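Write out the 3D structure for:
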Amino acid sequence: MTAKIRKRDKWDREDLPRGAEKVEAVREMFDAIAPRYDFVNRLMTFRLDTRWRKKTVSALNLPKGSRVLDLASGTGDLCIELKQNGYDPISMDLSFGMLSADRSGAPRTQVDILKLPIPNMCVDGITCGFALRNLENLQMFFVELARVTRHGGRIALLDVSVPTNRFIRFGNKIYFGRIVPIIGGLFSDRAAYKYLPRSVAYLPEPEQLIAMLKQSGFADAKHTQLSGGLTQLLVATRN
């Protein structure tokens, strides 16, 4: 059996991977889809992803020149937006394939974002786009964000969501559950884009996410649904 077949079996099975298996599987998946990642994203979201990233960066509300980590930075979309808003971004991702496709020009490094190789309270802000559901341990991630963010610093975390409106939820389930894997299969990797819609199951409810952030050291944590609940934005200030 080839490595490619083994990977497809992993993503196609009903039970989603956990623990160390999940970390390795996610890294391999993003390495594989990196070359067409931006194109497929724009296509499958009808370019709404660019609007969501603008809202994420705007929500930081930090002074110009602030140092901002972009975690799970992918090909650098958020870093580009951060630069355009006068911030000083640093790109960090587990996937070497994604970092190789980064076109932002920001300093970049391959790291496990649950174990950031930087001192305590050394950054002004943090962004993270569409990665919370891919992490092995969300509480550990939030604690790590609190460790490296200065007091008064801000975080803005963007990810997919489940719409509360039942009509939007039904349409979203059909589109992302059935159509997106076809689009992904035509232009990139069908198995990966079959996993991505299902991976929302990893995410806790909004109330639990807010509670986890507050327990980790972030005051005034707020949750907002974007585009009718297709995505969600978590914003908070370090105590």
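The chain has one domain: 3-164+195-238.
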